[in-house]
RNA sequence: GGCCCCGUCGUCUAGCGGCCUAGGACUCUGGCUUCUCAAGCCAGCUACGAGGGUUCGAAUCCCUUCGGGGCUACCA
């Protein structure tokens, strides 16, 4: 698949795990991955954990697990290593320090002794005066004396990048040419007073050091691009050596706000618990901001890799629609082979305490899965659907119970009992034949009425998998005894 | 406020000057099928934000306007 022309493509997914990876992150990861695979390039996974206040080890581990679960395998990054590591920014501090020193020496950056309070006050004034907020350049050209004075006051400096005059123009693969006047890009901080790097420093240094050729990331980073480019310049890169940028549109919540806890679940872990298949999530997310160009919507990972082009990605944001995800998930579940469906189902059954894992249970599950496969949208519906086959203390659901207390129901159940008990072979054809002859033809009842009562008696609910198959699986003894029990309700 | 990005059915999208009385999918509504629930099948509702240009012709190009969003941190 790799061809020589594109084999040098290197893309990275570089989240800052300040929480669980969410739908938006994953869409970005998916596109990064698809682009790398499509071009036969390298997919790099880097953890941006420079903000120690917010990033935790647990979130980092969960991010790794999530990507693995989704099948977005990486060529360089945590666990697999690679020639350009380490891939955790917290382990690259010496590298940032080295570059920071170079920038200071070359004059590309300078020490700024302004305190947070002073800067805040400055911004306040700018807002009041209605001018562009940003660092005014107080410490841009400090004399040796001034520096000594600040040091004597005990001030610790941050390292600030010196933006040059003029503007930055670059071609975004998705948005076309984008231009920023440096009037609106103030000198920005590269390093905190404690010597730790900021995003703007680390991201640019890493992308260069890791030889990243394409930066596909969220639209929220679009306006920080001139700052990255300024760092590239300070590192001595020529414009044709900069990575290519492509800013992906947002994935929005239902109410048109940025996705958050408040409007719909954002954590992928939640989708996993609900019984969404990774393939469904990826398929749905792929359709948010991208399409294969025709009316196809059922996309496998393989097809995504074949078809994905950055140029086909939209520039406009997309709303997340749970209903559509569910529809796709249902389609994907139906398309599962019996073995795959079994594999996905088992954890849900055991976690719900429906089965403990004995061979007998396994065989029953295997036999029962085909009759529910086309009736579920999410895997977490399985326990409730198959519960009637395994439950030790059988009881009819309260709302269904009311429906079989009338005389007609009692008669139906009694008659059902009479024709079922003598049945020699217990299979769904025989059960259906007997019941249909007795209840529909003989008693003249509508099938839904006749079978409805039996359904409630046998499965405990007026909603169940197909009745005759269910009774076959349940077995003759249990079926008979449940019908008897229902008659005496 | 300033800078930047974005604007086709409720939602995701097809559309790159004539094939568009705008197509598909999800949702919703009605129907068929039917042992319930699903699945499946059929039908229906609903969109080019607005206003100006350019052009023989515009959803497609330009301008304005309105609307939405992002950034404006010693967050990313």
Could you describe the 3D structure shown?
- It contains 20 helices and 11 strands.
- With 489 residues, it is mainly alpha-helical.
- The strands form 5 sheets. The protein has a 3-stranded antiparallel sheet.
- α7 links the parallel β8 and β9.
- α1 crosses α10 and α17 crosses α19.
- The N and C termini lie far apart (67 Å).
- The protein binds one RNA strand of 76 nucleotides through α4, β4, β6, β7 and α6.
Q: Strand arrangement, largest sheet? A: 3-4-7
**Mean of the pLDDT scores?**
92
Largest sheet: 3 strands, antiparallel
Structural class of the secondary structure composition? mainly alpha
> What kind of oligomer do you see?
single chain
What is the count of DSSP helices, taking H or I runs of 4+ residues? 20
Distance N to C terminus: 67 Å
Alpha-carbon Rg, integer: 32 Å
Q: Percent of residues in helical segments? A: 40-55%
The count of strands amounts to 11
Low-confidence stretches at least 5 residues in length (pLDDT < 50)?
Answer: 1-6
- The geometry reads as elongated
Question: What is the percentage of strand-forming residues?
Answer: 5-15%
């Amino acid at each position: 698949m790799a061809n020589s022309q594109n084999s040098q493509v290197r893309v990275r997914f570089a989240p800052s795990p300040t929480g669980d990876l969410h739908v938006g992150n994953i869409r970005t990861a998916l596109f990064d991955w698809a682009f790398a695979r499509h071009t036969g390039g390298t997919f790099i996974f880097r953890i941006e954990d420079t903000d120690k206040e917010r990033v935790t080890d647990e979130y980092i581990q969960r991010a790794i697990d999530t990507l693995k679960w989704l099948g977005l395998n990486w060529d360089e990054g945590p666990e697999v290593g690679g020639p350009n590591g380490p891939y955790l920014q917290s382990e690259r501090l010496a590298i940032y320090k080295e570059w920071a020193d170079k920038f200071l020496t070359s004059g590309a950056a300078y020490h700024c002794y302004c305190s947070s309070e002073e800067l805040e006050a400055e911004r306040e004034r700018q807002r009041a005066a209605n001018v562009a907020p940003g660092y005014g350049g107080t410490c841009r050209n400090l004399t040796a004396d001034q520096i000594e004075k600040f040091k004597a006051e005990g001030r610790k400096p941050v390292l600030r990048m010196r933006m040059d005059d003029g503007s930055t123009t670059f071609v975004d693969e998705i948005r076309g040419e984008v231009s920023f006047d440096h009037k609106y890009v103030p000198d920005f901080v590269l390093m905190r007073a404690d010597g730790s790097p900021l995003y703007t420093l680390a991201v640019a240094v890493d992308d260069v050091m890791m030889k990243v050729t394409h930066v596909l990331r969220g639209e929220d980073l679009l306006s920080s691009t001139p700052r990255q480019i300024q760092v590239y310049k300070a590192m001595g890169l020529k414009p044709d050596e900069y990575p290519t940028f492509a800013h992906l549109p947002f994935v929005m919540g239902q109410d048109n706000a940025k996705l958050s806890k408040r409007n719909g679940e954002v954590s992928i872990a939640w989708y996993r618990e609900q019984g969404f298949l990774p393939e469904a999530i990826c398929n749905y997310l792929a359709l948010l901001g991208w399409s294969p160009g025709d009316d196809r919507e059922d996309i496998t990972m393989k097809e995504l890799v074949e078809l994905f082009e950055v140029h086909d990605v939209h520039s406009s944001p997309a709303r997340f629609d749970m209903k559509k995800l569910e529809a796709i998930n249902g389609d994907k579940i139906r398309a599962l082979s019996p073995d795959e469906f079994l594999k996905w189902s088992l954890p849900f059954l055991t976690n719900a305490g429906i089965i403990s894992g004995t061979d007998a249970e396994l065989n029953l599950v295997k036999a029962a899965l085909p009759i529910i496969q086309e009736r579920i949208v999410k895997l977490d519906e399985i326990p409730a659907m198959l519960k009637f086959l395994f439950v030790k203390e059988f009881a009819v659901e309260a709302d269904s119970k009311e429906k079989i207390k009338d005389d007609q129901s009692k008669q139906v159940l009694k008659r059902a009992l009479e024709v079922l008990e003598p049945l020699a072979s217990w299979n769904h054809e025989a059960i259906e034949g007997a019941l249909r002859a007795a209840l529909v033809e003989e008693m003249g009842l509508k099938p839904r009425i006749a079978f409805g009562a039996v359904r409630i008696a046998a499965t405990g609910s007026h909603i169940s998998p197909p009745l005759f198959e269910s009774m076959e699986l349940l077995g003759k003894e249990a079926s008979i005894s449940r019908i008897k029990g229902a008659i005496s309700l």
